Amino acid sequence: MNDTTNQTGEKQGWWQRLTGGLRRTSSAIGTALADLVTKRKLDAAMLDDVEDVLIRADLGVDTAARIAKALGEGRFDKEISADEVKGVVATEIEKVLTPVAQPLVIGDARPFVILVCGVNGSGKTTTIGKLAARLAGEGRTVMLAAGDTFRAAAIEQLKIWGARTHAPVIASKPGADSASLAFEAVTAAKTQGIDVLLIDTAGRLQNRSELMAELEKVVRVMKKVDASAPHAVLLVLDATVGQNALSQVDLFRKTAGVTGLVMTKLDGTARGGILVAIAAKFGLPVHFIGVGESVEDLAPFTASDFARAIAGLTA
After folding, report:
1. pLDDT higher at 246 or 2
2. 2-99: which CATH topology?
3. Is the pTM value of this prediction over 0.70?
């Protein structure tokens, strides 16, 4: 009974954080849609306007067209309420997101090596800390590797998260070779029987060839210790960059063999719809989303909750 109550409370708590975090996006979509449908019958012009609103919210041209088409089915020349429009928007978004809403599965490999990549400022290091806390909370032993050796702040930040989560941290001096550090970390994690090793990497999108060479070297070198590593490659995306996130996914997918996505900072933007566009274009698993600074604000991605929250529907 208590477990059920706790689970219900946790779900309600997360729903409140999710809807609060997506308020800017849902307001941008919901307000504009409500203004469109007020005292008007649905016609071709209104559908075009709806499509424009959704494109401006970064949902992507294809998804916007799909939603407008679904909205028009059987409703022409009839008055339509804002809630009815939101319901159709939520349903169609959920269809796009359901195939990609997949949990991060920790396989049998020990250590299970997770390489985390993304541009500077995307929330990479903080996400690693939050994941470490989550994994430790599940009873797993965790090790962190400060592979973003170009930023002293990133190394220090990871050490702080290591102390918080009681996870050992493999680190070196700023400017050290990140591939060597990855080799050292995988070796240490294997020797110590660690369950999960989380490796941070440098994020420098502006120098693509250097980034590509460095990431490829990190992967190549860790395979000398464990040929199957890395077992997961997570790309951390900052929702506030909007359309730029599409090119980031494309680049890192080709460079590092990204296996899954984490989207952060959804609470700081009205452009949360970009996650829908990314899902439609790439079909990569979305494991977690972040809607705030605390550990609890990073949670597994659920298609139905996200779709309803972004459309501005209540639970």
Report:
1. 246
2. Four Helix Bundle (Hemerythrin (Met), subunit A) (1.20.120)
3. yes
